[in-house]
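[Target chain]
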Amino acid sequence: MNDREFVAYLDDHLAGSEAGLSAVRRLRRYEHLSEAMTEFETKILEEQDILRGAIESLGGTIPPGVVSRAIGLSSSVVIWARNLLIPQPAPMLVEDLEALAVGIWGKRLLWGAIARRAGVDPRLADVPVERLAESAEQQEIEVLRLRDDAIAPVET
C-alpha cells in the first residue's frame, strides 16, 4: 500500500470514529450507561487526535474524508429519524452497543495495521499502538458486557 492509499485507509477509520461518537452520544441518554459512555467519548476523541497525527506524519497526501464523514453522519441522522418515527428504546440500545462493538473491532484492526506499518515506516514510530490496542481490547470487553446486560430478561 502506498502512502496515499494508507492515508485514505486511516481517514476512513477517522470517519468511522464519527459514527462511533454518534452511537456513544445516543447511548449516554441511558442513565446507567452515562458514565461509561462519557469515558468512551473521551477515548474516541483522544484516538481521533492520534489518528490525525498519524495522517499528518505521512504527509496528509489526500484531503480529509469529507464524503466519508458525511456518510457516517448521515447514517446517524437516519437512525435518529427512525427513532423519532418508531420509538424503540430497548432494540436501539442493543443495536447501538453492537455497532459500537463492531467499530471497536475495526479499531483493533486499525491499530494492528499501523503497528505493522510502523515497523517499516519511522514516521509512525510515535503512535502508541500497544497502548491503543490494549485500550481497544478493554473497550470491547466492556461494550460486550453492557450488551449482554441489555439483552438479559427484565424481571417483572
Summary: The CA atoms of residues 104 and 140 lie 6 Å apart. DSSP finds five helices and no strands in the chain.
